[in-house]
Design a protein that fits this description.
Structural class: mainly alpha
Number of domains: 1
Number of strands: 0
Order of helices and strands: HHHHHHH
Largest sheet: none
Strand content: under 5%
Bound molecules: zinc ion
Length: about 190
């Protein structure tokens, strides 16, 4: 799922949790939402920012003037080094790691122990990201839920980056959910 949709879903889930739970005392409603939204972006930043640095170092230099900006953006988006060269293996390892449910569970357990205030936003933000990507990554970016212990990939139903229909449905569902949940508040 695209990064903006991850943040919107995480914010929506976090807001509903905060409205319906009395155990979320300790952090303000806005802080909880902001933390969940920020942590829902983190799984992608973990590998995309290093790739951006790698791409810039590798593809920069004098020839950069000759290339067109749009193909750079496309390459960076699809983690390609131009001419459909796949990303280096270490980028994929970071990707599988940051998108692993095993990593999510272990990190959540550690946070619960050493930094409990962040444990729930981490579970909501990072966890909602992984659930959404599990459904919407079908090709070589299919999630490996137990990585690095077990490398078996679990293909989703669709690859969101190739499916206009999925993105329309995703944003349509978001808009519908927001209308059902908050429409009454706006009309009151
Ligand atoms: Zn992702």
């Amino acid at each position: 799922m695209d990064t903006a949709a991850h943040a919107l879903w995480a914010t929506l889930v976090a807001d509903q949790m905060a409205r319906h739970s009395s155990t979320l005392a300790g952090s303000s409603h806005a802080e909880f939402l902001a933390a969940c939204a920020a942590l829902s972006l983190a799984p992608d930043f973990c590998y995309h920012l290093p790739f951006l640095a790698y791409y810039t170092a590798k593809m920069g230099g004098p020839q950069v003037q000759a290339r067109d900006f749009r193909s750079d953006v496309r390459n960076i988006f699809y983690l390609r080094l131009g001419d459909d060269q796949p990303p280096p293996a270490w980028i994929m390892r970071v990707y599988f790691f940051s998108h692993s449910f095993l990593f999510l569970t272990v990190t959540w357990g550690l946070l619960f122990w050493v930094w409990p205030a962040v444990a729930l936003p981490f579970l909501v933000g990072w966890g909602s990201h992984l659930v959404a990507d599990l459904i919407s990554h079908r090709d070589e970016y299919s999630l490996r839920p137990l990585y690095p212990l077990w490398g078996r990939a679990v293909p989703g139903f669709v690859s969101w980056y190739y499916s206009r229909r999925f993105n329309l449905m995703n944003y349509g569902t978001l808009a519908l959910a927001a209308t059902v949940l908050y429409g009454g508040i706006a009309w009151r």
